[in-house]
Design a protein that fits this description.
The chain is an alpha/beta fold. It has 15 helices and 16 strands.
């Protein structure tokens, strides 16, 4: 079977830019479509191509006409969900292909894709289930009855078998098809430096109310085998900087320690960027030191809030004191900190001022500010559903308020933009 896997174009819209001309948030990286490379790795025996619309935004129709796939697979985060539907419609019109949609939004809000232009919705980790769908279609079956795959039924609610995700869903014997995006490799960069993506774990053992990762593995945390991670890093020999694209690389400290030692034993001379919780840094500073010696240069930490009550409201299971201790430890060890902070639409001037004072007292190398967004499928969305005034998913980029702001709209975005302007990063990642 001919299968075309499509990465949507840059799809999100910006209220501060469109309404107020505020252009303060710049893209600092463009990553490869790892989810599609992973899917392709388990599709041996079929003719598979990946088309990345983030690199070639105008080439889809030509690619469909030239390849004429029998199946088109599309991945999408929430702000790309509308674009995924458009891609599906184009694929149907161009070559009559069957269309399957997966990714984080499909995993958290599969009903959104229950539309005529879409035939299947892949819920959660799709490496095994998508292969099962492909094999069923190749046998001439209709693709129904597969765990983790919903056959669309426009006009009636989706009904499908939920999948109990486990290690077998990782299909670790089949590596990602990095070769399928080789011609685009120069476009995948972080602050201008070549960047490669590798996965070492799926899901997260925590349950923050705003986070959409839980849908990926059905609430489980699945660590990849050490051998598979080392192999995948080795498949990117020319790439000096590796982003471990896990929600929580250190979700299992013992697994992280064994991986670190395996990287050193394999002589892999790479620089790494990984996600870690601040409480893991505080509890296991020796682990962070080991990783620093193995090439860890930067970490992404979700500090989220600057008061304990705010953290509790987000079900973060952490404290401001622990966050501050982690900042001190990481600076002492020599690890660059990319710190995520969540700005609530309920912020007033005093809240913005307090956040700026906090950052003066607790310097972060690269502060990232997101607007608290109730993503469909999350506990936060269930809590705030009645407050939502903007239901257009193009605006669910984490940089727009989709519930009413406490400050006047323009003033809120002026203060939000000011956060970036006053904390301009000087450190290199």
């Amino acid at each position: 079977m001919k299968i075309l896997l499509v990465n949507p174009p840059n799809s999100g819209r910006s209220i501060p830019e469109e309404r107020y001309g505020i252009d303060s948030i710049k893209q600092i990286f463009r990553g490869e479509p790892l989810a599609l490379e992973v899917l392709a790795g388990n599709l041996d025996g079929h003719e598979v191509r990946i088309f990345d619309l983030k690199v070639e935004p105008d080439g889809l129709e030509a690619a469909l006409a030239a390849f004429r796939p029998g199946l088109v697979g599309v991945t999408a985060v929430t702000c790309e969900a509308n674009a995924a539907c458009h891609i599906a419609a184009v694929a149907k019109e161009s070559c009559g292909a069957s269309v399957a949609v997966g990714g984080i939004h499909a995993s958290n809000d599969p009903e959104f894709f229950n539309r005529p232009e879409i035939d299947f919705v892949v819920v959660g980790i799709g490496k095994a289930s998508f292969r099962e769908l492909v094999e069923a279609l190749a046998r001439g079956e209709d693709g129904s009855g597969l765990p983790g795959v919903a056959k669309s039924s426009p006009g009636t609610p989706l009904r499908y078998l939920r999948r109990d995700f486990g290690p077998a869903d990782l299909v670790e014997a089949k590596p990602p098809r990095y070769d399928l995006v080789a011609t685009n490799r120069g476009a995948y960069t972080l602050l201008g430096r070549p960047l490669g993506f590798v996965t070492s774990a799926f899901g997260c053992p925590f349950d923050c109310s705003f986070c959409c990762i839980g849908g990926q593995a059905g609430g489980r945390y699945l660590a990849c085998s050490i051998e598979a991670v080392i192999r995948d890093i080795g498949l990117l020999p020319e790439i000096p900087f590796i982003r471990l694209v896990d929600a929580n690389t250190f979700g299992s400290p013992e697994h992280a320690r064994r991986l670190c030692r395996a990287i050193r034993a394999a002589g892999l001379e790479k620089s790494f960027l990984a996600d870690v919780r601040s409480d893991t840094v505080v509890r296991h500073p020796d682990l962070i030191r080991e990783w620093q010696e193995a090439g860890l240069r930067s970490v992404v930490i979700g500090f989220e809030e600057i008061c304990d009550s705010g953290l509790a409201q987000l079900n973060k299971a952490n404290s401001v004191a622990v966050n501050q201790e982690a900042i001190g430890l990481l600076r002492e060890i020599g690890i660059t900190i990319v710190g995520d902070f969540i700005v609530s639409p309920d912020y007033g001037h005093a809240d913005f001022d307090r956040l700026l004072r906090y950052l003066e007292a607790n310097p972060i190398d690269l502060p990232i500010f997101t607007v608290l967004t109730p993503l469909p499928g999350t506990a936060l969305h269930r809590q705030q559903r009645e407050r939502i005034v903007n239901h257009d998913l193009d605006f669910y980029t984490l940089a727009n308020a989709v519930v009413p702001t406490r400050l006047e709209d323009g003033e809120f975005y002026r203060r939000y933009a000011e956060l970036f302007q006053l904390t301009h990063p000087k450190a290199k990642i």
